[in-house]
Amino acid sequence: MSLILTGEQLKISEIREFLSRKNKVDISKEALQRVKQSRATVERIIANKETVYGITTGFGLFSDVRIDPNQYNQLQMNLIRSHACGVGAPFSENVALVMMVLRLNTLLKGHSGVTTDLVEQLLFFINERIIPVIPQQGSLGASGDLAPLSHLALALIGEGQVTYRGEQLDSSDVLRSLKRKPLQLQAKEGLALINGTQAMTAQGVITYIETESIGYQAEWIAALTHQALNGITDAYHEAVHRVRNFEEQTEVARRMSDWLEGSKLTTRQGEVRVQDPYTLRCIPQIHGASFQVFNYVREKLEFEMNAANDNPLIFDEGDETLVISGGNFHGQPVAFALDFLKIGTSELGNVSERRLERLVNPQLNGDLPAFLSPEPGLQSGAMIMQYAAASLVSENKTLAHPASVDSIPSSANQEDHVSMGTIASRHGYQILENVRRVLAIEAIIALQAVELKGIEKLSPATREKYDELRQIVPSITEDRQFHQDIENVSKHLQKLSYYN
């Protein structure tokens, strides 16, 4: 089954399915016709020798420099080569792949003036899974993600590095082996490829997919902890949450009740204690607030996924055609959303670390042994796993600082305000990875705690999760290197983001 791109209606759920099923991409006939129409406008501009930014002029501060008609195509090649100066580790293959899908979807709106050759080259790279190697750092997120998208464009013209079938190779070598010619950029096309927010948006989409999933996973992990601490279920009663008015909070409370249904480890208020600590009692309020963030971010990302965000834009208004220089490449709306996502994600880690602290602290965990040690004193048990979790959530507090409040002028002050949205997207994924490891630690500790309480008393739903995770991480019968356990559970949680 193919993912049909129209330029108008792409959803994050479709991207998730595209990645998990390794689907191919196709283009609607209507979208391809729009591409042809907008290209015809560019050809008329060239024929009429009009002055239009990026087609017949230079870029940025050089926008007033008129280019010789014989050098229009060379202008675009020079643009890509000079702007491909990203640095640092590359984006993941999934991010680079989604970047191509999103760029193609934008071009299909018919406001960019590219040729069908360019569209078909992008389609070929996507479907053959020829993945450009795109350095993560170097974008200001305002004139578009210029540096990252230039590395994407380099691969299309056979001058960059790509990953193909597990190997990092020269794009030219891969194209030659597949009997495919490098793309020859035409007027406007280099600019159309790199003026846009696809780097920050693609990374944002991947972060969103995995973060939403980790939000759901945090609930059954919390349910294991809840049972290990003989938590009170009354606080999840629907009536409590209905009067608060937040739908996401009510939904979390309902799911928590479902996870705990049938447990012999939970209690009612007054049986053991009157109230639980906030990290158990307020799970719907805390997790629900994160889901509010996720819903906001999903909406903004999907707006941008289907947006025309390059410059200049071409509009067919019936009797006249407009070519307008604007600023849709500015990443501010996406930057704000991705900074918000960082906050919503980091809080899932904060509350998880506080829950797992209760499991290992003998002053807080009821009758469980200190640090769940098999031999307290001789063996440390889960002591330092809590240290690791505390370190990760502390690091997240630094990473959650908003990137979008910063700006620095560029291009000789022509581009005098920038969004830093790509930095927000990168930090967001780092936060996610840290939170996933914190939740992995909570899961490992909670498994041990409920084992000590009696796994036969678990709710049926969480017993399934216990059995699932015990295939990955064994019981703590003696001290061992827990590093690999944490990584194994974290990878399992990541896999669930796409295959659950």
TrEMBL record:
Pfam families on file: Lyase_aromatic
Coiled-coil intervals: none
Protein name: Histidine ammonia-lyase
Catalysed conversion reaction: L-histidine = trans-urocanate + NH4(+)
Gene Ontology MF annotations: histidine ammonia-lyase activity
Residue location of crosslink 5-imidazolinone (Ala-Gly): 142-144
Post-translational modification: Contains an active site 4-methylidene-imidazol-5-one (MIO), which is formed autocatalytically by cyclization and dehydration of residues Ala-Ser-Gly.
Record carries keyword Cytoplasm: yes
HAMAP family linked: His_ammonia_lyase (MF_00229)
Pathway: Amino-acid degradation; L-histidine degradation into L-glutamate; N-formimidoyl-L-glutamate from L-histidine: step 1/3
2,3-didehydroalanine (Ser) modification, residue list: 143
Enzyme class: lyase
CDD domains reported in the protein's UniProt record: PAL-HAL
Stated family: Belongs to the PAL/histidase family.
Protein localization: Cytoplasm
EC number: 4.3.1.3
Protein origin, superkingdom: Bacteria
Segments traversing the membrane: none
Keyword Signal attached: no
Chief place where the protein resides: cytoplasm
Keywords on record: Cytoplasm, Histidine metabolism, Lyase
